Amino acid sequence: MLLSAVELLRERGVAGVTVDAVLQRSGAPRGSVYHHFPGGRAQLVGDALDLAGESMTALIEGASGDGAEQALRRFAAFWTGVLRESDYGAGCPIVSVAVGGSPDDARFRQAAARTMERWREVLAAAMVADGHAPRAAASLATMAIASIEGAIILCRVERSVEPLEDVIGHLEALVSTGRRPTAGGNAGTRSRRPAPR
Is the distance from CB of 93 to CB of 4 less than 8 angstroms? Predict the structure, then answer.
């Protein structure tokens, strides 16, 4: 049921996550909703939002140990898979809550804000570990999240992953060139793909 609710968040936003829609997609019996989610629809939506946010945060954290560029690549690979598998019908569930204008969306907006802040913190920490100055890393992490989320929207509109590939290429170039030199030469030795021209 939670996975079905996450899928509905990606495709339709908070307004599309109804008990009936979750039951239809998951095939679960109606009584199981109120057994597992005594708080009803609000709890189901909140738990689905938490699951989506925690899953994507874990993905970024897991990859960031190998550097900021690897974290960016893994995030992009995840979204490339989601976009293609959904035939470009699915977007980011966190963004769907953040930009939604209904009263339901407002109830969950703080959780969405916390998730995005965590993404920025993880990426910025990876960039600092790679040799970026802390203030520059924080700014670049914000730009990375904004650029990737914007690219996901363009991918859905254009029905192509090319906007995301372009954005990641430019971000990798910025991440690799913004490092401070170390005593042994340039910081970082990971392979890098050049930005698209």
Answer: no
d(CA 187, CA 149): 28
Q: Which amino acid is at 137?
A: A
197 residues of the chain, pLDDT tens digit each: 999 999 999 998 888 899 999 999 999 998 888 889 999 888 999 999 999 999 989 998 998 888 999 899 998 999 999 999 999 999 999 998 888 767 766 778 888 899 999 999 999 999 999 999 999 999 999 999 999 999 999 999 999 999 999 999 999 999 988 666 554 444 444 444 444 44
Strand, coil or helix: 136: helix
Q: What is the C-alpha to C-alpha distance for residues 58 and 80, in angstroms, rounded to an integer?
A: 17
| Side-chain-facing half-sphere of 181: CA atoms under 13 Å | 3
pTM of structure:
0.81
For residues 158, 162, 163, 166, the Cα torsion angle rounded to the nearest 10 degrees is -170
